[in-house]
Every structure is written in structure tokens, then in C-alpha cells.
Design goal:
By secondary structure, this protein is mostly helical. It has one domain.
Amino acid sequence: MGAFHPENDPRGSVSPEDKRILAELSPKLTEAATLSAAVGRSVLASGMMLEIEAYNRMVPTEDRREGIASFNEKRKPQFKGR
């Protein structure tokens, strides 16, 4: 139920003015929501690509192997910056 639903109106009905405002705003709100969703998908995709790129740079490092080994051996890692 939205803000303009009759059950939300303490008077028991939606005024003609409220109906006019809703009719005027509805297409704009739909367009804004659609644009927002598209931008969100784009930002998410960009973030995922950035994360993959960062991970791929780290894969061949000694520190990554040390991190995995120390985790498996349940010891504190000794990173060397390589």
C-alpha cells in the first residue's frame, strides 16, 4: 500500500488533488526508479570487475601463498611484501 492508498487516508478517501498529484508524479517516479536500478547494476558490475582485477594481481604473489599456508597450518602469517 502506497501513501495514496485509501486506507492510509484518515478521511477514508483520496482527494481529487491527491489523485492529480499521483497521476502527474507516477511516470516520473517510475523513470527515476528504472534509472536508479540501471545505475546500480552498472556500479555493481564495475565493482566486480575491479575486484577481479585486484585478485588476479594478487594470485601469483608469495604473500598469497603464505596466507593460505598459514591459515591451513593455523599459524600467524609472515608476509614479506612479495
